[in-house]
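Anyone else keep sequences and structure tokens together like this?

Example one:
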Amino acid sequence: MQLNWLDLAIIVVYLIGVTLFGLRFRRKQRSLRDYFLADNNIPWWALALSIVAAETSTLTIISVPGIAFDSNLTFLQVVFGYMVGRVLISFVLLPHYFRGKMFTAYELMGRRFGPRLRTISAGIFLLTRAAAEGVRVYAISIVVGIAFGTGQVASIAIITLLTLIYTFEGGLAAVIWTDVVQLAIYVGGTFVGLAVLTQHIPGGIPAVHELASQAGKLRVFDFSTDLWKPYTIWAGVIGGTFLTTASHGIDQLIVQRLLAAKNQRQAQVALLSSGLAILLQFTLFLFVGIFLWAFYQGLRPTPKSDAIFPHFVVTEMPHGVAGLLIAAILAAAMSNLSAALNSLSSSSVMDFYLRWRPERVADGMRISRIATVLWALVLALLAMLAMRSVGIVLEFGLRIASITYGALLGVFLLGVLTNRANESGAIVGMVVGFVSIIVVAWWNLAPWTWFVAIGALITFAVGYAGSLMFTPEIHTGEV
């Protein structure tokens, strides 16, 4: 079975509809604060849903079911860490962000340490986010290729172009409100898919429960002390806490949304409530993988775990439902991509261009839109390079981010938790922490779930010790 005209019509209507919806916000873009922070006029519940949508990509929807298909539910232990990390961000980092009218997370480093560290941290964000997002955009081609039989390059180009149109015109307001719509589409579509999948399995839910229980597929907790296992309660909660504190507390992709809140309290409520939503969402996607495993009864319809769910959608789902599910997967992809484009543009303009060319602030809107287009081209090219990646792309994407997150998080913690740390010491700590985690990753000395924790602790310790060796710098509170 392949997609028919009804499926294709649903997908086309979705793509055109969400693009036109995003374009509705273009008239509200009158200043950089409008374009990058939606004029601080977004309600907390929309921010919460947008945060969930921004951290959910095609990788999540197609890879998480693949993880459960291959193993069990122990990935949820990492999600528990995601929730703990949100609590830490709410009470440790957010108060510092809301003490000044900041556009990016890296302005905090400029104010605390000086211009060099702001430049370094923002530069690392741009490189890391672009690399990780390239992998996520590549994941789109897996789905579109299965659905339409088109080439991966064409698939990447179409989705990137459509997402660029409304991100270019509508700024963060368009991104957030399309996030809300797209989250409803992909979660609703996944529930529909799970319901149809249940009907395909003889005996329904009771049969799946019996089969999965006997095979150990419903196991959530692993209290093993084996440090080489990526999904244990220790690696999950500790590693997930460090990972989320970095991804949501210092990564402009999420921090930009928090800075768009009306005030600090609304930002805290949005972030904490998004934690419950993300737990429910990951549970849903993992159970899709369990049900797929029960349906195929140990057989593997495709060699790649990432392709199992899209393969089922195209080959087994009734027409109409298949189109809805493909549209849902594309919704997650476009939501994540639009968030990346706007955050990359904001950091490029605010952390680099306007610092070096402050006299061009009047042209800020035009420059921001040009930066958005340039980053779209970069991400499309990186996605094409990522086509040769192997394995489960979700884990590959997380590994990329985790390598640099540790050093960045260590520096931010130095800035907000200590008074004696200075810029020179922090830079030394960042370099040592980054090199250390490169060694750990290259020689496979620990699972990826520990990367951020290792890098952050090394950066913090070396940075603090190094600061004691340097004369404290006096800077002018560079913004």
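And example two:
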Amino acid sequence: MKKILSLLLAFTIMLSLCACQGNFGSVNLNESVEIPENGIIKESLIQQIRSENAIGVFTGKSGDYKYEWTIFGSDIKDAAEINLGVQIRKTTEGNIQVLLQQVKAFGFSALLSIYLNEQWTAQSATAYVGDKAFASVSITGSKTTILNFTLDGSVESFEIRPDALPEDEKETQATETTTPNQTPSTPVGGQDDYLSTPGQSDNKVQNGGKDKYNTDPVPEGKPKPVEPEDQEVDKGKTFTCTFSIECSTILNNLDQLDPDKLEMVPSGGVILGRTTVTFYEGESVFDVLQRVCKEKGIHTEASWTPIYNSAYVEGIHNLYEFDCGALSGWMYKVNGWYPNYGSSRYQLKDGDAVEWRFTCDLGNDIGGGYAVGG
């Protein structure tokens, strides 16, 4: 029986932990540890996180910026006193400059999340030391941008710059609407208001140009859906694409996460880093997701949704819809675009970049919501 103990904070910090399935602990996620003015976190607290295999969340402020460190006990090899103080400022170019107070490596990797007071249009960013890139930065957040990346404290000063959008994404970003990978029980944008007409031969209906599977018009220049029954796979022709799976937005919403799922969340939020995979001509995103996850030993679960004529991905890596709030679930992105139809209707092309991302806010926190910046 799982027991969750509270985290009691006073001037002397005491960390209480719970045992999840006998090998994973958690602090009380409603009470993170406030970083003191000098930034110093004592060795005893780091040791407690390590020995109890807990997740420690530490919050601080630098001027108008809030920042948050998430430390996984499983990543700590040798506990030591560390300095989590961070100085953050915006450059004249609009980038974010970061200066750590830590003067040597932590001895483990930790996730640093920086909360901006603005919404970046970029879908990803990169951290640089000078002109040399050293870390990829994921972007989450619904109304304002949150920058998330892992580091070990060995780099003292760096700058975060938003990645440039492809030209076609710049043209469509302000007007496109997307459909998160939601079930009919959690309709998005009124999807369930338009049901297909029995016996209808034309794939179009009169309701706003939706097809008989409730798909909104596909933005100009984007691939049209290919129905699974029309799919023709040629195993004589092979191509490559990249696949990645991540859930970093969960780390910004740990207070909403089902405690039973804490042990499923990897430090940094990356389940599968960008990997080049081979696929056959005619295969869909869903086909390749199933094969890649089977090869990598990553659990997946999906169901068929007839009214959308598509598979619905319920869970990946044992993280399911609603596991991190009522608006949470999985979405997929191809070449920077969140398609407005199911992954089993998206036919892959050579060189495609596919990203599966977990959302806690119907896609708004990962750049895939209905209104950009809204």
